[in-house]
Design a protein that fits this description.
- By secondary structure, this protein is α+β, with helices and mostly antiparallel strands.
- Helices cover 33% and strands 22% of the residues.
- A five-stranded antiparallel beta sheet has the order 1-2-3-4-5.
- Helix 3 crosses helix 4.
Length: 174
């Protein structure tokens, strides 16, 4: 049975990394519920901006379009005008905590790319229209959902989690 985080449970994301924030959330939910808890934290890190927006990706501005505008403005202000200077990476960190609140599995999925100078594509959300994946030749916003699931940071994180989770489940059954 899969349940959402309990309503009203607020967890402050005070970590300095995606992994730290995922860990904080998994531990807190597991302790609050006495159940296994899987939590994630994800975001975009841009080389020319010293890793920003990073763990503040969702709070970089108050809407998707405002976040993109701020990102593009700050890249221009940093002098990042050619593709070689616009490297970026989406990261998704997953943490699984046991019912006692101890993290027993952690993985990260990465998707390297570039930040375009202007949005492309109609799909996705957040930074997807400006995040170009050279491996695919498309932005996240241009990709079909299935392709984004395969190449994206979340898909890669869950692919890394699956074999470890299978081992853990086999151990729990014994």
């Amino acid at each position: 049975e899969i349940r959402h985080q309990p309503e009203g449970l607020e967890i402050e994301e005070t970590g300095h990394t995606f992994a730290e924030n995922a860990r904080l959330k998994a531990e807190a939910v597991a302790r609050a519920t006495g159940c296994w808890a899987l939590a994630d934290d994800s975001g975009l890190s841009v080389d020319a901006l010293g890793g920003a927006p990073g763990v503040h990706s969702a709070r970089y501005a108050n809407s998707d379009s405002a976040r993109i505008q701020r990102l593009l403005r700050e890249l221009n202000e940093a002098g990042a005008h050619d593709p070689a200077s616009r490297g970026a990476c989406f990261t998704a960190a997953l943490a699984l905590a046991n019912p006692q609140g101890e993290v027993v599995l952690e993985v990260e999925g990465l998707c390297p790319g570039l930040i375009l100078e202007a949005p492309r594509g109609e799909g996705g959300f957040g930074y997807d229209p400006v995040f170009f994946v050279p491996e695919a030749g498309l932005t996240f916003a241009e990709m079909p959902h299935s392709q984004k699931a395969d190449l994206g940071h979340r898909g890669r994180a869950f692919a890394a989690l699956k074999p470890q989770l299978q081992v853990l489940l086999a151990q729990e059954r014994q």
